Amino acid sequence: LPVSLSVHCLDHDAFLFALCQDHKLRMWSYKDQMCLMVADLLEFMPVSRDLRLAAGTGHRLRLAFSQSLGLYLGVYMHAPKRGQFCVFQLVSTESNRYSLDHISSLFSSQETLIDFALTSAEIWALWHNEENQTVVKYINFEQNVAGQWNQVFMQPLPEEEVTVRHDQDPRETYLEYLFMPGRFTNAAIQKALQIFSQGTETHVDLTWEELKKEVTLAVEREFQGSMTEYECSPEEFWQLQVEFWSKFYACCLQYQEALSRPLALHLNPYTNMVCLLKKGSLSFLMPCSLVDHLYLLSNEHHLSEDDAAIFDDLEMSRDVVCLVQCLQLIGESISMEMAFIMEMACFRLQPPEKAAEQILEDLIANDTENVMEDVHSKLQEIRNPIHAISMLIREMDYETDAEMERAHHLSMRMNLTQLYGSSTAVSVVCCGVCKIATIRFLICRDLLILQQLLLRLGDPVVLGGGQLFQSQQDLLHRTSPLLLSYYLIRWASQCLASDVPIDTLESNLQHLSVLELADTTALTPHKLVSGPQTIVELFFREVARKHIISRLFSQPNTSLAETSLNWPHLITAIVADFLPLLWPSNPGFLFPECLMGNCQYTQLQEYIRLLQPWCHVNMGSCCFMMGRCYLVMGEGHKALDCFCQAASEVGREEFLDRLIQPEEGEVVSTPRLQYYSKVLRLLDMVGLPELVIQLATLAIMESADDWRSQATLRTCIFKHHLDLGHNNEAYVALTQNPDPGRQLDCLRQLVVVLCERSQLQDLVEFPYVNLLNEVVGIIESHARAVDLMTHNYYELLYAFHIYRHNYRKAGTVMFEYGMRLGREVRTLRGLQKQGNCFLAAINCLRLIRPEYAWIVQPASGAVYERPGASPKRTHDGECTTVPTTCQIEILELEDLERQCVLAQIRLTLVQHDLSTAAVAGNSTPEETLVLLVRAGLFDTAITLCQTFKLPLTPIFEGLAFKCIKLQLGGEAAQAEAWNWLAANQLSSLVTTKESSATDEAWRLLSSYLERYPTQNSLYHRCVINKLLAHGIPLPNWLINNYKKVDAAQLLRLYLNYDLLEEAVDLVLEYIDAVLGKGHQYFGIEFPLSAMAPMMWLPYTAIDQLLQALRESTANHHNIVLYQKLHDKIEDYHEKVSMATQDRLYRHK
């Protein structure tokens, strides 16, 4: 029966190889269905009778094919207490016959073989030793004549117990240990959680953070459930916590051990990648450097001279091997307490040399196994210890003089852009880095202790022929930074990255865009599902991988086949290129920059804290990064201190140089000023005006000879002082600005902001040395450009001039304000403000000497030339011609008083009738008069006429018309009339039931005619004319009044309106009055007589009346009137003739 089968396809056939229980190897052809070869494998190993008779159940068979060497067969022959590997090459003979060519036989130890893999040169084997521990070894069966297997150093299981000091919180200590990256798998913790919770809950697909919360809740729940007493001492509480957490840790350890047990060994023939297949995971085997290999090698394994040839100089190689063996002796003697001393020294930023010295003293004090004598003895074998230490340090130092080239585009190798980009590949690379850093840290620690021992010994023989003390000190000071570098890389490899919300990333992107660093990293959040992501993994995934792969595959003359994807070579090259990117003392600054770009501020802060005291490279960049961290944490003043410290390194560090690259078209200033400019933008975006002011003030000292930068900084200081409400400081910054253009912009902003804040006292009282005209111009332009009712720029300008006793300008401002209010704000409130403006203007002029009490009339229509204003155009789209000259009008105090009266009258009108507000605001006196008459405000209208010397005719005509309407109107008109009648002062107003609105209107008209007489009775005539035009009979009082004044004109009016009867009556009465009958009613002082003055009648009008009566003979009544008038005239003529003769007789 076959116990192991393998298949290989070759030459259009499939060959089946079977290793059977009878210890024979058979080869079958699938194509021919026949056995091609049978080989007895016992011929190639020492056998006994028992072995030949026993069934070979533990045999293994593996194949390996090489294009150049053909097919190899690897056979493991199992025998009790021993085993043997045989390697054969398949040889083809004539007639399609095959045979085996024996290549090598290798003997193995008594360990139990689980699996093995074969290549054309090596055998890899997986064993379990007597302690049931996993062992992996490999051997080159072609070159290793001695048959010595090489040991593979496996990842050890976590410690069986976690040490918790009394000053530590058990929960935090255990959680930190359990969730340390690479220590426990997610599956192991979830299994342990399920068992610990007694299977009540199932936890599937939990993130690392969610799993941590569930673990904490489960342990705390069990812990609280076991508390039987309400009170216990802190010591008992601490002990109970340790007990329950250790119980859960034991469950995790049990499942981790079960899931970590290897099941098989896998070797990829194309890339030579070797993997361990485990129950719960997959482990990758990585090449180990010879220095690390020497340090990890156990004492029972010894290297040959060829394997130990680290350098070309064999004696130097032997020295280094002996040196590493000394380090092994020291490392094996160090207890956990001693190791903790060095760990805490690095964490607390204490000198590692001091910690090494203390550990050495503890080693010497507790040296029960004479380790120090063994070390001293081994040192005797070293020819030149100082040189050997120097060479070892050089092998472990990744410091470079120049920064690695930044990533190139992989446009020609798109198939490589995702190489090593998976989560597994990232984890493998970073775990490899962490492992190297951990081993190298231990090497450096032990090396520091050894160096302290050498200093203590001071033996010239041991120190290689009297080495100088200074050389030893130099090496000590080289080793210390090396140890701290590996400590920092190890810390970063174990430090978890934070899961950052999208809004935080977007905010960070805005800040980076200000610094013009937004393109340095890919800002995409990663949800941590299967396990945590360390900051080193984040860096490799986002930044370092592209740089490394680009550099490895960017040689122009090499093909992809030449740059092999061989796993051992490639992973070694990637790690070797990755470590310099992480190396703290290299000029490159990509790692901290990546942390900043991905919002890992807490981690970045701790990274810089561990780095700053001893690393003097990129000090300014670190200060800048620390400032960014403080800024995000809300500690602005600390951030400012860091930014200021970083300024001293501008121009010396690559990161800061990239930070200050000028934008396209930007005026280049000094590097430090460019740096300050970027930081100022950042602080401005974050919203820290106080810090902006501080930094800008500091930057001004750096820009003594650069007036442009000074202007920018002064403007910045002004802006933020103004935003903070520091008005005085803002004004000082404004006055110190050397750029007139910027100064004017700042002044304009100061005016607007203080007006909006209503801080007008500050605005008025600033001295404005050499800026007075500019301030006035700014306020004037704003006053003329904005809404009058929402901004008070005119009142501000008035106060501005009053404060400086410039009363004429103050009066001009208020007069212009009043004019614009009338034009633009045609409301009751606008008219009220207009009146106040005119009163203020009058007061200003009254404060000036009379000969200077005048102002210039503001431009009509408030058209002012404003910068940037669009040109006025006609309806054809053509620009209107601007008049080159304008007439200047001077207004004196009397003119302003008249305008004030007009404003008060307009206000009275609008208060009486709001509907007139739209037209009254900018109306002329004549237009206002019409509105007043229409509204019935006759007293106010008379005041207007008297002020502007206007005739009262429109008033009498309007009042007469209202009387007509009242006489003809109904009750509604009567009720409405009382409103306007009440607005006019009538001294003898009678408000009785017998008195109607019509009566009062007629009485008002009568009082006006009496109060405002004219020489030619113009107002009587216009009233009578209005009444007669509307066919209204003349009131007796009006006829009687007018008869006394101008009876002839009354006659003419009668004739004009064809009132013949009234005209005849008037003429008859008039003739009687002339003749002495009722002469007092016509204002005739002396009737007709020989002694009286000469008198005459209006013969022309009387002749017209007679003619009119004569022409209307068809009307009998007119004939009677004609005859009556004719007789009266004849009678008058006779009496006139007699009076004339008497007069002539008297004169004789």
From TrEMBL:
Q: Does the record bear Nucleotide-binding in its keywords?
A: no
Q: Where is the NUP160 helical domain?
A: 313-539
Segments traversing the membrane: none
Q: Which InterPro entries match?
A: Beta-prop_Nup120_160, Nucleoporin_Nup160, NUP160_helical, TPR_NUP160_C, TPR_NUP160_M
Occurrences of domain NUP160 middle TPR (ranges): 583-847
What is the scientific name of the source organism? Hypotaenidia okinawae
Taxon lineage: Eukaryota, Metazoa, Chordata, Craniata, Vertebrata
Task: Give the location in the cell.
Answer: Nucleus
The answer to whether the entry has keyword Transport is yes
Residue ranges of every copy of the Nucleoporin Nup120/160 beta-propeller domain listed in the record: 2-291
- Protein name from the UniProt record: Nucleoporin 160
| Pfam families, per database record | Beta-prop_Nup120_160, NUP160_helical, TPR_NUP160_120_M, TPR_Nup160_C
Q: Which GO terms describe its molecular function?
A: structural constituent of nuclear pore
Q: Which residues form the NUP160 C-terminal TPR domain?
A: 892-1146
**UniProt keyword list:** Nucleus, Transport
Q: Which domain of life is it from?
A: Eukaryota
- Listed GO CC annotations: nuclear pore
